[in-house]
């Protein structure tokens, strides 16, 4: 049982286990834990267990959140794919929580292996294990990503890992539905990623304007190559459009090369140096259209941020791109087929319509205070 604050002199202790933290690593899950921890500290002592992203002692405190390095900094990717070595070492390092104080443990499901070791930890400690689940990859994705035998093994591991938590917090309704279909009876709550609406409203547009702007991790499934192909098509048809691509990732060098090969390098401003959210919002507001060609997305926090910044958002109907459900709600949103020709046509039409305008009222559903309240009810019932 999680102790009630009314029966304890101390706050309950929440342990969050994730191998990536903001601002050292940029992505939706990193922002999620960064923002949530700011709200959870009002009700609990929050300890985040991660890799050693920073210089100095292995434990440090920032804004009342305590960070613990349980392993050194290990590279996420090897030969363009998620490193199995990093995943295994982080999972083994998670056994350190056997000797760390906590009342409830919230673990990020990526990269899977730590769910097994932390199940053992929480079983021995008799504490609840709550997992945050961003997306279900499934057998087809794993087969494409790792091949026949490797894909079947990876899918088996993913499926078994779903049975480890006592409760799952899914980042979207679609992910929650997939989980319950695969593991009937699994307790699942829905708590999507959120946005800092106050931060968005306070941001001043960067003076360096651009036609297109996107914030994303530079990975193969984000399909930035398709965006560059669409830009090449538009240039060939007499409509060169400028684009700012904000982010880092294993496809970084490859995308620079593709931009040169397609003859659009002079139109693309790659920004691999952005670390602060306020700068992200300023750069978003300097654009007109947010093109999001990802073919696999568990939620799409960048889409919410773009809509909040008043941009018109384009994404595709790729089956595993769950961001399309957000864009479908948006007045200033466009869905198109998942190919370069359709994407180019959607960009062309969106630029003709102009910038989206003000943020849409329904975005308030995704404010961090609202999201944090729901998560706190799961962690500390």
Automatic annotation (TrEMBL):
InterPro entries in UniProt: Glyco_trans_1 (IPR001296), Glyco_trans_4-like_N (IPR028098), Glycosyltransferase_grp1 (IPR050194)
Concerning Gene3D superfamilies, the annotation shows: Glycogen Phosphorylase B
Give the record's keywords alphabetically: Glycosyltransferase, Transferase
Looking up Pfam families in the UniProt record yields:
Glyco_transf_4 (PF13439), Glycos_transf_1 (PF00534)
The UniProt record lists the Glycosyltransferase subfamily 4-like N-terminal domain at 27-198
User: Which residues are the signal sequence here?
Assistant: none
Start and end residues of each Glycosyl transferase family domain: 212-353
What protein does this entry describe? Answer: Glycosyltransferase family 4 protein
